[in-house]
Known about the structure:
Elements: H1 2-8, E1 12-14, H2 19-47, H3 53-79, E2 80-85, H4 96-121, H5 130-138, H6 142-179, H7 184-197, H8 202-222, H9 225-237, H10 247-271, H11 276-279
Antiparallel strand pairs: 1-2
Amino acid sequence: MKILKSIYENEVEVKEISVLKSLFIIIMFTLIPGIINFLLTFIMILIDENTSIGSVMIIAGIILLPVHMIIIIMVGKKYTQKDIIKINDKKVKINNKDFLYVFLIIIGYILIREAILFDVLSQFEGPISEDDIDFFIDNAETIEVVIFGFLMYFQTLITAPIFEELLFRGIILNGLLNKYKNSSKKAIIYSAMVFGLVHLNIPQGINAFIGGIILGFIYCYTKSMKLSIFAHFINNLITFVPVPESLIFKFIYIVIGTYVIMKGIKYIRNTKLINISKAS
């Protein structure tokens, strides 16, 4: 747990990480839980062939939390310089205004996404189809559906923002920044590509890639894991925004979204002590 705190506080130096190493990390991040869940399902059915799909899904959801935490701890220990403590970096003080402008950036992105990308992304099937949901509901007890829904809600709003930011911004992005010292933009784009790939489906992948660029920008300028976690949380929280059907409302969404994003970017650039040039 100490390594997670050090990464969160930006107190340790991350070793150089190449794109290939980043890909290896996300393979482990997705493959290991998948193998564990497969073995768990096999064992549960072997013990009791009447085991419900709801029970399997609930246990899998519960196990996912400690498994991801262990993986991030292992990756953190492997790719951080244990003997190098960041004592020269100036601490950036985070205030309520910082959170407000980060919030505006995410809201602006959501508005633009709904106006431009929704029609495109809706053409692709997501990780869970309506048939999958119907099958789960029809074959699980009501209490199992409620518990599993709570687990997914908790994972989406709490564990995903924290764990994914620690891994993808705190470790991978920092490692790429150290690898590509002369091109922080390249590091941000590469980390966003890796972040998109880990979602394993086109709609979430495209959304995560663009979101990863935004999160990478926020982190590079502020060096604040608090702000990147908050931004990730807001993006996951606001899942329903009325999709504009007319061109006029699409245009309004785009104008408002662009305006608030630019306001947020301008504020961060003008007020943060640690900027992207220093990060590179």
